[in-house]
UniProtKB/TrEMBL annotation:
MF (Gene Ontology): lyase activity
Gene Ontology BP terms: protein-tetrapyrrole linkage
Keyword field: Lyase
EC number of this enzyme: 4.-.-.-
CDD domains on file: CpcT
Family classification: Belongs to the CpcT/CpeT biliprotein lyase family.
Encoding gene, per UniProt annotation: cpcT
Biological role stated in the UniProt entry: Covalently attaches a chromophore to Cys residue(s) of phycobiliproteins.
Name of the protein described by the UniProt record: Chromophore lyase CpcT/CpeT
PANTHER family in the record: CHROMOPHORE LYASE CRL, CHLOROPLASTIC
Length: 215
């Protein structure tokens, strides 16, 4: 390979790493659907999403704890996950992990003392559930990795696979999750009122590991 080719690969790798850091800095924060709720409170309850940075040592890289709650009931979140962010090829991957005993860590989105109790031993990888993001100008667009392997069981016994649509800008999170039957591909669950839109109301980028912050 020519020196020019090596230089191009090095520049591309650095660009992809920088995209991962930019996405991390944009995710770090509290997001609120309050404005969408005001537009139509009957179909859009007020939801808050927290993406709280984890210490560098947790993954030897960039990680987050996330918590999604209804504003009226913050101590009963309906989503709690841990995420690892890394660049791979032309994409930025957000790997998803489940908490083995999520009730122990409820409130970590708003309470740093609880957040500190999460350890690598308390999580397990959700295989097939990584979100793959691509940079498109001033936004990142993501979807669940291909293969329909992100499985979510239902209380009625049906097994579904997850499809996610996500768009992230510096101050906006837009998403829609939909579940489909693994045997028939029939839609089983998900929003019937379109995409959910959240605006950043708190910025936690300063909590990212110092070597992972955008200069």
């Amino acid at each position: 390979m020519s020196m020019l080719g090596v230089s191009w690969l090095s520049d591309k790798r650095e660009e992809n790493m920088n995209d991962a850091m930019i996405l991390a800095s944009w995710l770090a924060g509290e997001f609120s659907s309050f404005k969408q709720t005001l537009d139509n409170p009957r179909i859009h309850p007020h939801i808050r999403i927290f993406f709280r940075p984890l210490p560098f040592e947790f993954f030897e890289g960039v990680g987050f704890y996330s918590e999604q709650v209804y504003d009226y009931d913050p101590w009963h979140p309906h989503h709690q996950n841990v995420h690892r962010i890394f660049a791979q090829g032309d994409n930025v991957f957000v790997e998803n992990y489940a908490l083995k005993d999520k009730d122990l860590y409820t409130g970590s989105g708003s309470d740093l003392e609880i957040l500190k109790t999460i350890t690598p031993e308390s999580i397990e990888l959700r295989n097939g559930c990584a979100i793959i993001f691509q940079r498109e100008g001033d936004k990142f667009v993501g979807q669940v990795e291909p293969g329909n392997k992100c499985l979510i069981p239902r209380k009625d016994g049906r097994m579904t696979y997850l499809k996610s649509e996500v768009e992230v800008t510096e101050n906006i999170w837009i998403s829609r999750d939909t579940g489909f039957d693994v045997d028939t591909d029939e839609k089983v669950w998900g929003s019937t009122t379109g995409l959910l839109k959240f605006e950043k109301v708190q910025n936690f980028a300063h909590e990212l590991p110092k070597n992972c912050q955008i200069k």
